[in-house]
Specification:
With 320 residues, the chain is of the alpha+beta class. The chain has helices at 21-27, 32-39, 53-68, 92-99, 116-129, 153-156, 212-233, 251-260, 272-275, 282-292, and strands at 4-13, 17-20, 43-46, 77-81, 107-110, 135-143, 161-171, 176-183, 191-192, 195-198, 201-204, 209-210, 243-246, 301-308, 312-319. It is globular, with a radius of gyration of 18 Å. The chain binds acetyl coenzyme *A. Acetyl coenzyme *A is lined by residues 30, 34-35, 38-39, 114, 153-154, 157-158, 191, 210, 212-213, 215-216, 219, 247, 249-250, 277, 307-308.
Length: 320
């Protein structure tokens, strides 16, 4: 028997506090015009001091579980993508499992930075194909505001906090058609948080640093390539894509990717203006929005794409 993963519920959560570009103008030498014209970002959400990544993940997961019409007890496996865990260990997935009031089923984190959700979905899909689980919860959750250098206007304006989740159900019909993951560790230095915990102290610089121009070019190149790879694997044409949901880093990266694929922007789900870059949470946040507002409908082809630190990138093609 061939099994597929069907996405039967989506959910998301954005922290209450909104930080607009105008708010940033008051605390650093920047402008709404500079940020918006280069990135398409107008605002981002910032987690409260007492919120952890697992708290954001919990709300998004509860919403996805409710939308799926199941209970937390039905979840057989939790895969959670994050680069901003509550602590070094245990994993956020384990905290989330406990907060959902369940125990026994496996739960683990995936660390692929902004590609994390696409990686997590691909991993979950492999488990689903084995037929072992009925329902798998896949989450992307991040509090990037805590790893930003708020004195570096070149990076801190780009990111925000949030979480998104999906429930996968074992199905005999697609579902996820295919997934395509890649990494090239030779590019580790162009986007990193080069700090670690050692001997009871933080060593190195545990704040995000980035070569913006290099990241931009790399992202556009690989998002185009991996989309072509996913289409070729399924003998589909660019025109068969009903919705492209790319990682939400920067509107210019999203537009350049759509251009490469010959897609009109009205086939692209973009939330970067309101969410900024929420790393592993960006794709499930955008997906949830487009599912809930009715844009994504049964039978459509939805292409999810991630790209981020590592460097990592990947695509998951879904028949809704
Ligand atoms: N406000 C005002 N001025 C700024 C700001 C700011 N927030 N940030 C930088 N500047 C200034 C710089 O100091 C520089 O001034 P100078 O010319 O006097 O030295 C000038 O603006 C140009 O700086 P650049 O860094 O060259 O700006 P650029 O036009 O390349 O845009 C940006 C920077 C937006 C980061 C761009 O490189 C980009 O979009 N990169 C993509 C990276 C990205 O989105 N990363 C997200 C994470 S990666 C991922 O998720 C895949």
């Amino acid at each position: 028997m061939t099994y597929y993963s069907k996405i039967i519920g989506t959910g998301s959560y954005l922290p209450e506090k909104v930080l607009t570009n105008r708010d940033l103008e008051a605390i650093m030498d920047t402008s709404d015009e500079w940020i918006f014209s280069r990135t398409g970002i107008r605002q981002r959400h910032i987690a409260a001091d007492n919120e952890n990544t697992s708290d954001l993940a919990l709300v998004a997961s509860r919403r996805a579980i409710e939308a799926a019409g199941i209970t937390p007890q039905d979840i057989g496996l939790i895969v959670l993508a994050t680069s901003t865990p509550d602590m070094v260990f245990p994993s956020v997935a384990c905290f989330l499992q406990a907060k959902l009031g369940i125990k026994g089923s496996p739960a683990f984190d995936v660390q692929a930075v902004c590609s994390g959700f696409v990686y997590g979905l691909a991993i979950a899909d492999q488990f689903m194909k084995s037929g072992q689980y009925e329902h798998i919860l896949v989450v992307g959750a991040e509090i990037f505001s805590r790893i930003l250098d708020w004195n570096d206007r070149g990076t801190c304006v780009l990111f925000g906090d949030g979480a998104g989740a999906v429930v996968l159900k074992k199905s005999t019909a697609p579902g996820i058609l295919s997934s395509h993951l890649h990494a090239d560790g030779n590019y580790a230095n162009i986007l990193s948080v080069p700090g670690s915990v050692s001997g009871g102290k933080v060593s190195g610089q545990p704040l995000l640093q980035m070569e913006g121009g290099t990241v931009f070019k790399f992202a556009v190149k690989v998002l185009g390539e991996v989309a072509e790879e996913a289409l070729a694997a399924n003998q589909l044409q660019k025109s068969d894509i009903d919705w492209l949901i790319p990682h939400q880093a920067n509107m210019r990266i999203i537009q350049a990717t759509a251009r490469k694929l010959g897609l009109d922007m009205d086939k692209v789900v973009a939330t970067v203006e309101r969410h900024a870059n929420t790393s592993a949470a960006s794709v499930p946040l955008a997906l949830d929005e487009a599912v809930r507002d009715g844009r994504i409908r049964a039978g459509q082809h939805v292409l999810l794409e991630g790209v981020g630190g590592g460097f990592t990138w990947g695509a998951v093609l879904v028949k809704w």
